[in-house]
Known about the structure:
Elements: H1 3-21, E1 38-44, E2 47-53, E3 71-78, E4 86-94, E5 101-106, E6 114-121, E7 124-125, E8 129-132, E9 144-149, H2 160-167, E10 172-175, H3 204-215, H4 218-226, E11 229-231, H5 258-272, E12 290-294, E13 298-302, E14 318-319, H6 334-346, E15 351-355, E16 370-371, H7 379-391, E17 397-401, E18 407-413, E19 423-429, E20 454-458, E21 461-468, E22 472-480, E23 491-499, E24 502-506
Parallel strand pairs: 9-10, 10-11, 13-15, 15-17, 17-19
Antiparallel strand pairs: 1-2, 2-5, 3-4, 3-6, 6-7, 6-8, 9-21, 12-13, 14-16, 18-19, 18-20, 21-22, 22-23, 23-24
Helix pairs in contact: 2-4, 3-5, 6-7
Amino acid sequence: MSEFNRRTFVFGTAVTVGAVALGGRASAALPYPFRLGVASGDPLPDGVVLWTRLAPEPLENGNGGMPTTSTAVDWEVATDDKFANVVKKGQFTAVYADAHSVHVEVNGLQPDYEYYYRFRAAGHISPVGRTRTAPAFDTFGRDLLMAFTSCAHYEDGFYTVYRRMAEERPGLILHLGDYIYETTNDPDDPRPRRHRIKTELTKLDHYRQRYAEYKMDADLQAAHAVAPWLVVPDDHEVENNYAGDHRDNNKPPLPDGWDKRRADAYKAYYENMPLRGGARPNGHRIQLYRRVRWGKLATFHLLDTRQYRSDQACGDGWKYCPEAGDPSRSLPGIAQENWLLDGLSQRQGTWDVLGQQVFFARRVDQHGASGMDGWDGYPASRDRIQKGWVQRGVRNPVVLTGDVHRAWANELKVDFANPASPVVGTELVTSSVSSGGDGAKAGGVPHQAENPHLKFYSQYRGYVRTKLSQAKMDVDFRYVEQVTVRNKPVLTARSYVIEEGRPGLQTP
């Protein structure tokens, strides 16, 4: 039995024997409420966020079958998965207005340390989760095994990618957006899974049900339970290709307005993610861009590339559009650009990692056309950021990207049009968890003749595994050949090394 499966079995038995161990008895008034699993996120050197949501009937309504009354939820953190050494515990009141979601901000823990956690409510014991704290700010700590992915359309395939990520037992997982999809496929579409709600999501209860539908998946629960997550959304958590205050189109009609739809979507996102209280939405706004330090080893700059961007140029899509180059246009917004450059100037870690959503490197076809929804649609904004990190002497900038349902490895240049321009950074683009369905064998890097800085391409579903040390970042592009069939094995498509102080991709 693998180490992961052994621990999964141990965690599973803790659910049944834990109530006895803690002197609890399952309440007949409330069926088992932890059907959406557990999660942790946003680690600090002395703490982490613990998450769960009470939902005995997750798909029955937007509140998971819970009563309108509040429910006390006990939580414990231990140094072992049997909870023989409990180091922190407390109680959280889960309320109806927040869909009985639980966000516990634990502090007082040891830095760079592994912990286990669980919850109890109405006599029921949750599954056990594994988490860890970040290293102290003045230390490098252990090397960090990290995995990242994005885009998990439920109807397009099974979540084998999440399961394989969990089996890696990483110290940290990044999810770069499209955790859910607000759309729905045609009922006659022969895809492997069907959404419960058959129309596009526009209301709070529907968003809540969609998260519940996704979170009931055992493979997703395994990935959440194995490590802390850093999460940022893209567009489908709200609406496809929205840009700040602008909708992509006027379909479907919104009787309560666009602001109300965003408010509902952001509220459901917060309720279902292991985020700190500072991210609690304020109406149709939510504060999501933030910095997470991993000791002296790395700084994660997590970007929000939807809420503050200028509208896509020339009506969006893939095209040649001189208007996109207007220097007043910004993808993250000028305030967030300045926030990012200020953080990069501090150079607090060996690696400066930008976790964001849309394709960063230049990617044009033979006609000069490019995608208006990615950074090619905002080249002046990209130019300010890249030149900014060069001017600030940032040695190891690495951009992590999701969104495009394909894996890419790219070298970043201040002047992409000049092949002789020096490499000033690296972009790693993850494929999707399931969006796009089964992949296919790629015939080469598309438009590489026009874009020689694009070095690798894969159409299969998957994730990127990285190991960060003081000297290098080891990179493995991991994939599964099919997601329409359960439980396929994981393979490595390509491996690279990014050496400290030497931006770009090296062959190991």
